[in-house]
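Quick one, T. Sequence first:
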Amino acid sequence: MKACAAIAVLSWLILACPAHALLYSVTDLGNLGGTAGSLGTGLNDSGMVSGYSWLPGNTGTHAFYWTSGTGLVDIGTMGGNSSNASEVNDSGVLIGFSDMGAGITHAFSYTSGGGFVDLGLFGGTTSAANGINSAGTIVGYSTTGLGQSHAFSYSGGIMTDLGTLGGTNSNAAAINSAGTIVGNAFTGAGPAHAFSYTTAGGMIDLGTLPGGNTSGANGLNNSGEIVGNASTSGGVTHPFSYTTAGGMIDLGTLGGSFGGALSVNSSGDIVGEADTSSGPFHAFIYTAGGMIDLNSVLDSSGTGWTLLDALSINDFGQIVGYGTGPGGHTEAFLLNVVPEPSVCGILLGGLALLGAVVRRRGF
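Structure tokens:
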């Protein structure tokens, strides 16, 4: 009977156990030799990272991809001095923008086997690709012949103008697997607002936080949850999440006044940057209803790091961004969740052992 009582107590303790605390290891993705370092900008579910790095002498930047097998790979430019990669999809297609020379910048897509594809322009001199989905549809912005910037989607070799919310400019930041696009656009009244766009419904104004007048959407997941930043009644900018059912929700900050949410995964985990009560911006994750400073949940590999911004999170919880590394430079990082042994795991092992004893002794 004593063994049965012990089993009952252990079982109750296991049921009462909390979820594992978050803990991450830090991988320094390196750089291309410039003292200004590198930034990690995008991440797919295979752990492939997109980003860009300053060159030796800080004479320009080159886009790169990184995998655990290849390390950091410089993909070059489309003719000019600089290029930046902003995202990578699960097929390994990178997107971004490249200097073409003569003051012209074009959006691109890139694969390691096929090289660069120039996405073109709307008649102006500048375009940039910001997001790509699993089907390969790309979104971003391009200047027009009138000098305005308009959001675009690109598929099958065709760049489509998504328009605005009645103002002059717009920018598309991200697209999900269903083809929903988010970004920001100037309204007829002037201030820029976050938008969502579908082919069937066109561009929809998502509004602002109560009392604010500006907003912008930066990312979304396949369930349609949208994240971004918006001004508040106090004249500061806070990160938000938005769903059709719940509207726009203020996520708060890390004790300061400003912040922005940049990416959300299928579990609803959100990452971005927010300023702290002491002033500097820190990278955050917002999960289970609360915002956590990522600097507070690093294992020993994080010694000497200050994580400044988290730009992307994948469906396996890996996070990419940039921070100040142990050497004092800005460096791209990749965070991996550390499988942490817990008291609950020890209790579970004890329950199994006690159960075996009970069976042998015939209790």
